Model the fold of this input.
Amino acid sequence: MMGVNRSIDSLQGPLAAALGRFLKFCGEEGFPVVIIETDRSQVVQNAYYAQGREPLDVVNGLRGAAGLYLLKERENTVVTNARVSNHTGGGAVDLCPEIPGKPGYPWWNAPEEVWVKMGALAEECGLDWCAGGYGQTWGKGWDNPHFELMKEA
Ligand SMILES: [Zn+2]
Done:
């Protein structure tokens, strides 16, 4: 699979099941969300890791080979601290609230309360919001889209 993968079926079974429960719950709550990325190849992760660490031509060489769109100079900033991601192998999913009235459009700058509501709905469905944890993308703040399967207590 090249480029950004958004397929639920490529996630590990228990995580796919939790995500299915979450999407159903969001539908019932009238709280639309966008799946940003599910399983991620190491080729894509390598391109993400190079971003902000290598010159733009090197980064875009990796991105092109990985099936990703090419960046502009101002976009060449660090987006991950992980050489190896839990996405690889289908162990993580990135989720974002949807812009009201714009199906499929991620609401990246949604207010904190919207992100917090999404995180609360997800955790009720067995997804662990890693916003305060791994910080693999988008820093460690409340606007981090990264979720994994909640560990057994
Ligand atoms: Zn992630």
